[in-house]
């Protein structure tokens, strides 16, 4: 029989780490080990597959058990865990059937529902906003202010959209240089911000400054500028939104988009769950050698 042990994002990091150490001390002959940022799971054994274990793995693979419902990375992570077990020859026929079925179920959920559509993180929503509002995005000169994980994700996503004219700055220049060297973009000293703004088309900013760092006196308002202000409190002076050539979007605009997408995904949960139930039945009847009644 296939057995399962696991802990996910509902457990603390310390609990997941302790669980991870424990299961690695005595791995069985046949197993698939799945580890992600928020999940550690072990599927082991051979023979019959309990429906509750199949249902759980199908839901995990489809993104229904993720912290961010419908996220797409988990399908690839499940596939890699399965392939690793195959390559290292600790996969059993039962585990093979289970994971093949789970990958099919996850793919079907994503193709037949909108569970993975729409941005649900700040970086995703920022890129979606730019793609919607800015024509010829890849041709624009972009300044990113602030060196941290959010802006790093935004720059990586911009690169994937063909944007290569990206410059990053930070009050602490060493942080900007370190981030830029990792993701491949230009840097400049924060003191040169006013000069750099003269040739920019898009400004994305997220700093911890207690007051606005982009004000009308340093912005060339005669040029068309698009600004995304992700900072709290705001980095962009509210007066700039009064200029006809300057468009300013703030954190509230981005989060409104995220909220709408999360709500839309929740409406797809019922259909996704129905598909999972159907796929579990298919696997059950296939193992029994009986016709599938859906």
**What is the level 1 CATH name of the largest domain?**
Alpha Beta
Overall shape: elongated
Largest sheet, if any? 6 strands, parallel
Q: Distance between the terminal alpha carbons, to the nearest Å?
A: 25 Å
Based on helices, strands and strand pairing, what is the structural class?
alpha/beta
Roughly how much helix do the residues carry, as a percent range? 40-55%
CATH topology of the largest domain: Beta Polymerase, domain 2
Q: State Rg.
A: 24 Å
Work out the strand percent: 5-15%
Spell the H/E element sequence: EHEEHHHHEHEHEHEEEH
**Would you identify the CATH architecture of the largest domain?**
2-Layer Sandwich
User: How many alpha or pi helices?
Assistant: 9
The CATH homologous superfamily name of the largest domain equals Glutamyl-tRNA reductase, N-terminal domain
Average of the residue pLDDT scores: 92
Number of domains: 2
Number of strands: 9
Strand order of the largest sheet: 6-5-4-7-8-9
Low-confidence stretches: 290-294
């Amino acid at each position: 029989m296939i057995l399962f042990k696991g802990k996910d994002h509902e457990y603390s990091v310390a609990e997941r780490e302790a669980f991870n150490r424990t299961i690695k001390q005595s791995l069985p002959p046949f197993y698939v080990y799945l580890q992600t940022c928020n999940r550690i799971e072990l599927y082991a054994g051979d023979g019959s597959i309990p429906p509750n274990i199949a249902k759980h793995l199908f839901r995990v693979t489809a993104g229904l058990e993720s912290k961010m419902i419908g996220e797409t990375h988990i399908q690839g992570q499940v596939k890699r865990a399965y392939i690793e077990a195959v390559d290292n020859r600790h996969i059993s026929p039962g585990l093979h059937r289970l994971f093949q079925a789970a990958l099919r179920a996850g793919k079907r959920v994503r193709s037949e529902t909108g569970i993975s559509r729409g941005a649900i993180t700040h970086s995703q929503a920022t890129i979606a906003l730019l793609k919607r509002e800015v024509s010829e995005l890849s041709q624009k000169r972009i300044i990113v202010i602030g060196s941290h994980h959010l802006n790093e994700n935004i720059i990586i996503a911009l690169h994937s959209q063909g944007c290569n004219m990206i410059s990053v700055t930070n009050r602490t220049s060493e942080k900007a240089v370190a981030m830029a060297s990792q993701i491949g973009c230009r840097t400049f000293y924060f003191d040169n911000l006013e000069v750099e703004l003269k040739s920019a088309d898009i400004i994305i900013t997220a700093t911890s400054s207690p007051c606005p760092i982009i004000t009308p006196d340093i912005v060339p308002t005669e040029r068309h500028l698009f600004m995304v202000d992700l900072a709290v409190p705001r980095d962009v002076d509210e007066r700039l939104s009064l200029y006809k050539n300057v468009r300013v979007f703030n954190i509230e605009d981005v989060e409104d988009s995220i909220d709408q997408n999360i709500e839309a995904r929740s409406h797809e949960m019922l259909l996704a769950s129905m598909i999972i139930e159907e796929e579990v039945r298919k696997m059950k009847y296939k193992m029994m050698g009986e016709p599938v009644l859906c």
